[in-house]
Each structure stands twice: as structure tokens, then as C-alpha cells.
Design a protein that fits this description.
about 60% helix; globular; disordered C terminus; mainly alpha; single chain; AP-5 complex subunit zeta-1; about 0% strand; TPR_AP5Z1_C; about 800 residues; ARM-like
Length: about 800
């Protein structure tokens, strides 16, 4: 991020100790106490700023130094450069309790803005925000609209409006609204005069400034806006630019509020078709109240910006500015129509034409988002169907511009912010989740947290299974998008794909018709309601598993899966839960082979499998056949130990008559035999490079599950007792210790001994291993006569006392 030289300076600044810092502060004090601080003072303050800003914790400065920094900042005779540095240093120390800035006498708007930046950084201590706002307005009132340097006050006012919106009086609100009208609508249309240093060649015959121009070079024939261009700008033109930058926030602040605002019923009447004629005949602008006049001029300004956006810019910087101003202009129009419905019918035709023009211009796709938001907000009132606009937005934009990080972020934020407005169009959003996942797959680090919030609104019972498959295939989607960009006929000058992988071998193979159908399914724009097995595609895209973007996406999937299941478990019924569990079992061995991806996903899926079983315990009986097939195979058991442990635990916990009356002894016996055979194979097989050792946690869960099943079918108790005895003997042998280590082997031996002890009293074993539902009630744990810990302690004493008399 930084150059080697910058990194060295930052390192030196962080390494300065407190003693050295105090000595340096003393030097700064001496330099600032001079009558005429020179370049040495500037250099010292620059170094001090680097020191205090290089660390995330607050550096302690001498009180004398801090006081002198404040005095220098508030001094009217101090050079601007020193004031800037003093303000920057004091801001870095925020919040501070020992500030004593004397700013009541300040009349310079630039100096006041610096002092205000320090005070506002402290928070709302001692009502600094209110006091600064009042003083800023006093300075504003003392100036004429064309007065010098008023533009330094506008950021202060904007910040105060944000931090403390109720600190301004009505007359102050009216004053600023009037000034904004003047700056927005009546700025000079002549370019500013270049500042000359006065020399021999500066004569009265110097060339007079010409009129401002449009972005395409034509002479401007209408009023000045932020999109007007020129060599130099006048003060009121700079104020015009700043006024537009704070216009939307100020409209929201000064808009109709409280009892004077129309209520919902009145507003709906205002938005009715009966006012479509009245809206065309507006009151004379100069007779309107300040806020209404500001809204009128803001509307004219935004219409002018929309017209200017149609011009072809000569410079790239102007083209980028056009796009940004167009977005802001539409947002301002949306705000105006919310506050005053009479603007609605004057805006509709403009935005309809703008939308038709932008649909064919991918470079300006960002402006489609506020237009869609506008029609979501006002479409019903204006009798305009927003479905076609949303359909185009969700179908084309993510598919074509997923590689634009700014657009991707704004698109996802638009979806989240507009959720209350979708109404009957929410189905369009839900159907488009495959397209939205393209934004996520390509930009996963910055968008993961946004999608965690958005996912609950995207998923429903009809799309849950398809979305789960899509989330598991998200890294594969990233690789497919990379491949799509490489195969695109319109190659970019700057490659958008991973350049570390120059020419993957799958590039030509992907043109095969066999893979084209799978790629088209993976890159679909809308939910199809079907699921396809993508294992051949995983194999085709294997060379791209090491791409940085694919790896980043794979790291985000576990978090997204947790958000998905958290949302699904709120509405999933038994049938949907069974389908989701089947997907978990099916996809355990069918994941894109990104390094460490399978292990991370298995950990999440195993925990979610247990959560689904707790939600609907009967699924163990419903899916008995599929679960038996899962535990009946020992292949790759070492790579899916987490899933196996979860399935075994769920069988031991929920395969019981107490959870499902359909549970039979035959089912318990079949599961017992399958798990017994599995445990025998994993403990008897010798580990090798091709067959790693089985995790000891899996062995412990399998032993416990076998014991639970035997306690429910007492004919199995002799078999499991014999097996546990052998396991205890095996755990004490050097062979198992050499495989699992002494600590793990000891844990296996301890677990086998505990289970054997329980089985010596079958009724007690069933009580402990298959407790009734009453155990979850608080009374069961508070009552000393029925508490489970008491029962266990009693059983332990009996077993220890009579161990020699019991069979075993």
C-alpha cells in the first residue's frame, strides 16, 4: 500500500518513545512561541502530526504544547499552513477533555471551519455542536451572498445538520434556504479571473474571461451547474458546487415535518390524478416560502443536470462527473417528490425518457438504481408499473457488470434499503438470486456482510434447496465468471480476471457442448427450480481452484451458509427439512476442490444438520434409508469425520420411540449393525498416506451412539458390552497409542469404561442416555430430589460399591 520510504517513516514514528516525544514537544513549543514561526515550525508540526497519526492509540502530549496548538489555531495572524497542521494534530487527539478553544471572536470562515472541525470531532460535549452552529450562522448572516470565502462554512453547517438536526432555529433554516437558492440558480455564467502574481507582463489588457462551457465544449446557454466547465471559477460558482453537494441532506432536514406535514391520507389524495393538472401551473417562484422556493429551484437544477448528462464529455474526468451527478440528481428528485407530490408528474416524463436512454448504456448503469428506487416509491401513486424497470435491472445489470466493485456494492445496498418498497415485486428480487450471487461471487470480501443481512429476504420455501446448492457452488461460480471474462469477445484493455493464471487448460475445453449446458445453468440469471449435478464442471475448472478470487469466495461461504440456515429454520416444515438434510448428505463429496474449502464447509454442515434434527427429530425415521446408506460406507470417512459424527450423534439422540412412535426395534438394530461395522473397520484398519487415521472424536461418538441404541433394545446390550470391552483393551494397547497419541487413546479408554459402567444397570443407562422430555424443564434441575446430577452421583456410588457383584 505504501512505498518503502513511507513505510520506513511510519515505522520510525511508531517507535518513538514517550520520553523522546516530550523532548520533541518542547522543541515545537519553542518554535511556535517565536513572533514569526518559519519553515522550521511547519516542518516540526508535520513531524508531530505523523507521530500522533501513525498509531491507533492516543499519544500523550505536554499540556503546554496542546495549549499552544490551540492558541496558534485561534490566532487571526497565524499563517494558514500552521493553522491546518494544528487543527489536524488536535483532531487526531480526539476526544480530549482539556480543550479550551476560544473561537467566539473568529470572523474568518476558513479559520472557523478549522476550529469547528476540531470541536465537532469531540462529540457533543458541553453542547459544542450547538454553539458552533450558532456562531457559524452569525458569520453567515453578516455576509452578503457574494461575500468572500463563505464556502468554508457550508461543510460546517452540513456536519452540524447531521449531528444535531434540531439545533437550528426556523429563521436560520430560512436564511440558509434563501442562500442556497441564490447559489444554485444565480451563480455567474462567466469564468473566473486567473490570479496573477503581478509582474511585468500583467497588464490591464489581459484577456477577459469568457463564458463557462458545457462538458462537450459548447458555450453554456443556461444557468451554471456543477457540470459547467471553465479554466477558472468565481466564488459564487464554487458555492454553487458546494450547495449541490449538501442539497439532498438539507432538503431532508428542512422538509415538511410535524403537524404541518400532510398525513398519509392527505398525501395519497395529493398524489392522486386530480392534481396532475394543477401541478403544471406552479405558483410564482418569488412568492413562495423559502423552503418551497428552494425545492422549486432544486427541481430546475436537477432537470438541467439531466439535460447536461446527454452531452458527450470531452474528458474522462468530466464523463465520470456526469455519471455521479446524474445519480445524485435522481436522488434529489426522489426526495422532492416525497416532500411535495406536485413534483411527481413533472418528474415522471423526464425519468421515463432517462431510463429508456440509460438501458442501452452500460457505462451509466449506476443511475438505473436511483431510478428504480424512484419508481418503487412513487410508481403506485403515479399509476406506473415498475415491474418492467425492475426486471431489466435485475436481469441485465448483475449479469453484465458483476466485475464493477462500486456498482456491485451499490446494487446490493439498493436491494437491502428498498426491501420495504418492493411489495408485490418482491418475487422479482427472490427469483433473481442467481444473478445477485454473481456480484457476491466476484466481490465476496466486501459484500459478505451485506448478503448476510439480505439472505433472509431472498430465501423462501420454494427456493431454499436451489439456493443451498448455489451457495455450495459459489467458488465454482467465481471460476466460471473468470472463465466467461476470458472468453468474452470484447476483451478489456485491463484484464479483469486473475492474471496470475495466464492461460488455464480449461479455456478451450469449456467450449465443448457437454460443458456449455452446465455453464449456462451455473450462470443462469433467474432461479430455474431445478438442480443439476455439477461434478463434471468441478473437474473442468479444477485448474482455477488456486485463483485468489476463488479462494476468497470459498472463505466467505461458511459465513453465508450459517446465515442461510438461520433464516431457513424460521419457516422450514418437516418436508423442507428432509430435503435440506438430503442435500447435506448428497453434497458432502461433491464440492469444488478449493484448498481447505471442504473441511470448512463440512464443519458448518455438520452443525446445521444437528440443528435441523433438533428442529424436526422425526427426520431420522423419515430418512432412515438415506442415513443408513451414509453410515454404511467407510470410504472417505476420514475426510468427512465431522459429518459422520453429526449423523451418528443424531441417530443416537433421536432414533427413539420417545421422539417418534414409528421407530421400531428393527430400525434400531439395523443402525446398530451398520455403526458397529463402521466402528470396527475404522479402528482395525492401519492408517496410511491414502487412509489417514480416524479422528478420536468420531470413535467416541460412535461408541456412545451404539450404547444409546443398545439401551433402547436390551438384546443388544451383550454385543455392545463385549465390543466396548475390546475397545477399552485396544485403547490401552501400544498400537492405538502410537496412532492416536497417549492423550487421545486415554480419552477413548475413559469413554469406553464410562459406557460399560452405565450398561451394568440397563434401566439406569436408559434413564441417563435417553432422558425424557421433562429433563429440559427448569424444575427438573432445581428440585434436589429429581435433579439429574443427583441421580448420576447416586448411580455412580452404587456402581462403584457393587462393581464386584454386577455382571460385566
Amino acid at each position: 500500500m505504501f512505498t518503502a520510504g513511507a513505510e520506513s517513516l511510519l515505522h520510525q514514528a511508531r517507535e518513538i518513545q514517550d520520553e523522546e516525544l516530550q523532548k520533541f514537544c518542547s522543541r515545537v513549543v519553542k518554535l511556535l512561541q517565536k513572533d514569526d514561526p518559519g519553515p522550521d515550525a511547519v516542518d516540526a508540526l508535520q513531524r508531530l502530526f505523523l507521530i500522533v497519526s501513525a498509531t491507533k492509540y492516543k499519544r500523550k502530549l505536554e499540556k503546554t504544547c496542546v495549549d499552544l496548538l490551540q492558541t496558534t489555531l485561534c490566532s487571526p495572524k497565524c499563517p494558514e499552513q500552521l493553522q491546518f497542521l494544528c487543527a489536524a494534530i488536535l483532531r487526531e487527539r480526539s476526544p480530549a477533555d482539556n480543550l479550551s478553544l476560544s473561537w467566539d471572536h473568529i470572523q474568518s470562515s476558513q479559520q472557523l471551519s478549522l476550529v469547528a472541525s476540531v470541536l465537532l470531532a469531540q462529540g457533543d460535549k458541553k453542547e459544542e455542536v450547538r454553539s458552533v452552529g450558532q456562531h457559524a450562522f452569525r458569520v453567515l448572516e453578516s455576509r452578503q451572498p457574494e461575500g468572500p470565502s463563505l464556502r468554508h462554512l457550508l461543510p460546517v453547517v452540513s456536519k452540524i445538520t447531521h449531528l444535531a438536526p434540531h439545533t437550528l432555529h426556523e429563521d436560520q433554516t430560512n436564511l440558509l434556504s434563501k442562500r442556497l437558492v441564490d447559489w444554485l440558480r444565480y451563480a455567474s455564467v462567466q469564468q473566473g479571473v486567473a490570479h496573477t502574481s503581478g509582474g511585468f507582463f500583467s497588464t490591464p489588457r489581459a484577456r477577459q474571461p469568457g463564458p463557462v462551457t458545457e462538458v462537450d465544449g459548447a458555450v453554456a446557454t443556461d444557468f451554471f451547474t456543477v457540470l459547467s466547465t471553465g479554466q477558472h471559477f468565481t466564488e459564487d460558482q464554487w458555492l454553487n458546487v458546494q450547495a449541490f453537494s449538501m442539497l439532498r441532506a438539507w432538503l431532508v432536514h428542512s422538509g415538511p415535518q410535524g403537524p404541518s406535514a400532510p398525513d398519509a391520507d392527505d398525501k395519497s389524495e395529493l398524489e392522486g390524478s386530480t392534481l396532475s393538472v394543477l401541478s403544471a401551473t406552479s405558483t410564482a417562484s418569488h412568492l413562495l416560502p423559502p423552503q418551497e422556493r428552494l425545492r422549486e429551484k432544486a427541481f430546475e437544477y436537477c432537470q438541467r443536470l439531466v439535460e447536461q448528462s446527454t452531452r458527450r464529455a470531452l474528458r474522462k474526468g468530466d464523463a465520470d462527473l456526469q455519471k455521479a451527478c446524474l445519480v445524485e440528481a435522481v436522488l434529489v428528485l426522489d426526495t422532492l417528490c416525497r416532500q411535495d407530490p406536485t413534483f411527481l408528474y413533472r418528474t415522471l416524463s423526464c425519468l421515463k425518457a432517462l431510463h429508456a436512454r440509460l438501458c442501452g448504456d452500460p457505462a451509466r448503469a449506476r443511475a438505473l438504481l436511483p431510478i428504480a428506487q424512484f419508481f418503487l416509491s412513487h410508481g403506485e401513486a403515479a399509476a406506473v408499473d415498475s415491474e418492467a424497470i425492475l426486471q431489466h435491472l435485475f436481469t441485465r445489470v448483475p449479469c453484465e457488470l458483476f466485475h464493477s466493485p462500486m456498482l456491485a456494492f451499490e446494487f446490493v445496498r439498493f436491494c437491502g434499503d428498498s426491501l420495504p418498497l418492493f411489495g408485490r415485486n418482491l418475487d422479482i428480487l427472490k427469483r433473481s438470486f442467481p444473478n445477485l450471487f454473481k456480484l457476491l461471487a466476484w466481490n465476496s470480501p466486501p459484500l459478505t456482510s451485506e448478503f448476510v443481512v439480505l439472505l433472509p429476504s431472498l430465501v423462501d420455501a420454494g427456493s431454499a434447496v436451489e439456493m443451498l446448492h448455489a451457495l455450495l457452488d459459489l467458488p465454482c461460480l467465481t471460476a466460471a465468471l473468470d472463465l466467461q471474462l476470458r472468453l468474452s469477445p470484447a476483451a478489456s484493455e485491463r484484464p479483469l480476471w486473475d492474471t496470475s493464471l495466464r492461460n488455464p487448460s480449461c479455456l478451450e475445453a469449456s467450449r465443448d457442448p457437454e460443458f456449455q449446458a452446465l455453464l449456462q445453468h451455473l450462470l443462469r440469471a433467474e432461479a430455474s427450480g431445478t438442480v443439476q449435478r455439477l461434478a463434471p464442471l468441478h473437474e473442468l475448472l479444477r485448474p482455477m481452484t488456486g485463483c485468489a478470487r476463488v479462494v476468497q469466495c470459498a472463505e466467505a461461504v461458511p459465513t453465508l451458509l450459517q446465515a442461510f440456515f438461520s433464516a431457513v429454520t424460521r419457516f422450514a416444515d418437516g418436508a423442507l427439512t428432509n430435503q435440506l438434510v438430503l442435500v447435506l448428505l448428497e453434497r458432502r463429496d461433491s464440492l469444488y476442490q478449493v484448498p481447505q474449502y471442504e473441511d470448512r464447509v463440512h464443519r458448518v454442515l455438520s452443525s446445521q444438520l444437528l440443528a435441523l434434527c433438533a428442529l424436526h427429530p422425526s427426520l431420522v425415521v423419515d430418512l432412515a434409508k438415506e442415513l443408513l446408506e451414509f453410515v454404511g460406507s467407510v470410504s472417505s470417512v476420514h475426510s468427512r469425520g465431522a459429518m459422520l459424527a453429526a449423523v451418528a450423534w443424531a441417530v443416537g439422540e433421536y432414533l427413539s420411540v420417545s421422539w417418534d412412535r414409528r421407530c421400531t426395534v428393527e430400525q434400531i438394530t439395523r443402525f446398530f449393525e451398520a455403526l458397529e461395522a463402521l466402528l470396527f473397520e475404522v479402528t482395525q484398519s492401519r492408517p496410511s498416506a491414502a487412509l489417514p487415521k480416524c479422528p478420536p472424536q468420531v470413535i467416541a461418538v460412535l461408541m456412545t451412539t451404539l450404547t444409546k441404541l443398545a439401551s433402547r433394545s436390551q438384546d443388544l446390550i451383550p454385543r455392545v458390552s463385549l465390543f466396548l470391552s475390546k475397545m477399552r483393551t485396544l485403547a490401552q494397547s501400544p498400537a492405538l497409542s502410537s496412532v492416536h497419541g497417549e492423550e487421545d487413546a486415554g480419552a477413548i479408554c475413559t469413554r469406553a469404561t464410562e459406557l460399560l459402567t452405565l450398561l451394568k444397570m440397563p434401566s439406569v443407562a436408559q434413564f441417563v442416555l435417553t432422558p425424557s422430555a421433562e429433563v429440559s424443564e427448569p424444575r427438573y434441575h432445581r428440585d434436589a430430589n429429581t435433579a439429574l446430577p443427583l441421580a448420576l452421583r447416586t448411580v455412580s456410588r452404587l456402581v462403584e460399591k457393587e462393581a464386584g457383584l454386577l455382571p460385566g
